[in-house]
Amino acid sequence: MSAFLAACGNQGTTPTASSAAGSGGSSTPLGPGGIPLARRTNPVTLPLYDDNAAIADGLSAETGGTLNIYNWADYLYPSLAKQFGKKYGVDVKISTFNSMDEAIAKLQTGAVEYDVFFPTTDRLPQLVAAKLLQPLNMSYIPNLQANVWPEFVSPFYDKPGDGETTARYTVPYTIYSTGISWRNDHVTLDVPSLGWDAFWQAGDYKGKVAVLDDSREALSLALMKNGIFDLNTEKQEDIDKALASLKELSSLTNVKTSISDYQTIPEGRTWLHESWSGDIIAGALYYMPKGVKNTVIDYWFPEDGKGPIGNDTIAVMKSAKKPVLAHMFLDYMLDSKNAISNFVDWNGYQPPVNDSDPDKLVADGIIPEHLASTIVKRDSFDGGLEEGQLTPQGQAMWENAWSDFKAGV
Amino acid sequence: MYPRWLWPSFALPGVVWLLVLFVVPFYAIIAVAFGTVDPVFFQIPVPYWNPLDWNTAWMSEVIGDFAPGQKYWIVGVRTIEYVAVAIALCIAIGYPVAYYISRHAGRTKALLLVLLILPFWISYLMRMLAWINLLAEDGYATRFLSFFQIDTLFVKLGLLDQGAGWLDGQPISVVLALVYGYIPFFILPLFAALDRIDRSHIEAARDLGASPLRAFLHVTLPLSKAGILAGTVLIALPMFGDYYTPDLISASPNTNMIGNQIDLYIRQGPQKTIGAALTLVLAAFLTVLMLYYLFATHRASREAQST
To answer: Is residue A208 within 8 angstroms of chain B, CB to CB?
Structure first.
């Protein structure tokens, strides 16, 4: 494997021929680093560079010192990290960030050195082009092929190159959908039949309505309300429509922007919230105040599957001080038992591993039956919508609209 | 005798501090605002250090959005409103407190001053987070306010939306939180100014037949003007840059202040050049306010010397 990677890299520092093209050809718009924008319909192979090779086979793990992990806040079960450290005789230190922009900005300065990082899929081209990630040597990560859904062994955002069988830079971490959560003891709207329009019918719940504090998610909600399901649109008229709808929502409901739904929905501080599925599981399992049953929380995702769906990944930093151990950590997180423990004992976000059977999760009572809609199934990805990487111009367009919305009315 | 450089050298640590931690970083913000972005990702700021290279595109884009009706105009006007009302409330609440402590507290003066500083033992963020619980639907403060029907009074006065909770994106909550957070900074310099007033001035006014009100209006108030100004400046500057108070107390875009827009670009979003340009616009605005303050205090001290 590593020999193959090295051979690939010998062709020069520019992306290798097999990788740069992607399957969409040259007509597709290019993202950062000249890498084509990955879509489910247009998988992209991330380039390899000869000055950024994967580690060799058969190395033994580094010992002593600290394994540095850089992750979203509250997104990894600390006791799992601790056990890993115990097993290999290292300290595991988890540093956290609150947004991908914040994380990448810090990584780009080179002032911080981490071994393991948790990138979102839409930022991979940027990270790869900047050579912040190192290609993985999957011989250290047998759990990928043994335990993980095949879609994520060779995912569209990190497609194996010609003759390769696995992703080059990432292994999957969690999967989630974006839907609507609400308190059925306060909200009398028929959310499932209203769908995304429910927010615009929520004038009676002024101050209790929130959208995700995330430019892509909130604008996507408004796009879908307007019947626009290309969530990677870079048409100014589409974005203008979405912005107008969000501003209308501001006037109608004094809408909030928040990513604390896993606390505010259980506590009843918000009643209708655009939510990530995993936050609602975590909220229902761990954040209910005394005396409040989690049956008051409902979650809706379109029955036809036409809603945003995505996944996060784990990668190894190029600057990793303990690259072998970092690979082993990735393998450790893909161990079925660990992956499921991380899911049900801590963060509420599902891992795409074979043993985490959605129906079994409900049958075993791990996920409350009325929240079965939070579960992401393998076929959910077929009709699901994606929020992928935009061109830099497109990204600026989205962000300007977002800033406009955040200025209020 | 001492060598001539001895006393000036005492200023050295302060000068170094100012240079390293203010002048250089501030110039970096200018260089970013008038710089460009990298050619690969179109978002990593590339500062232009040489003023001759400066690129004014970002700045003119930002200034354009300050035109009436544009997004920064809306936020800017709202910010000025919130800060102005908060300062007015700080004066209305803070002046009597400072006056009482300096003139009538007697032996409890020291104790009252300590009590005034007490909130600083807990960080600003913690105190704001505490308010979130106190003002929640079933929080103690909410129950207290509704027991005394203060919330219905606020609704009648049009300060609170009908049926809305205090945390439901209400401007009044944000303004009151600002007052709560910053008022001690206002009272302390004002107290110092009031405490310095020579009582014989006031006695003289009374001896010459001035009523207590006239003595206050013509002696105490003018003499404490410098304290009011100092306190106002001290709280106005951080209030104009505040973003976490509206974030925590409201989280609604409709109560966002200009600091939230800067936070959006600098901390959250990738377009740091725009954030830097916004920062400079805010700094320029605050400089104008500061110049007025310097001018006013200069005039006040000249008047004080001439009398």
So the answer is: yes
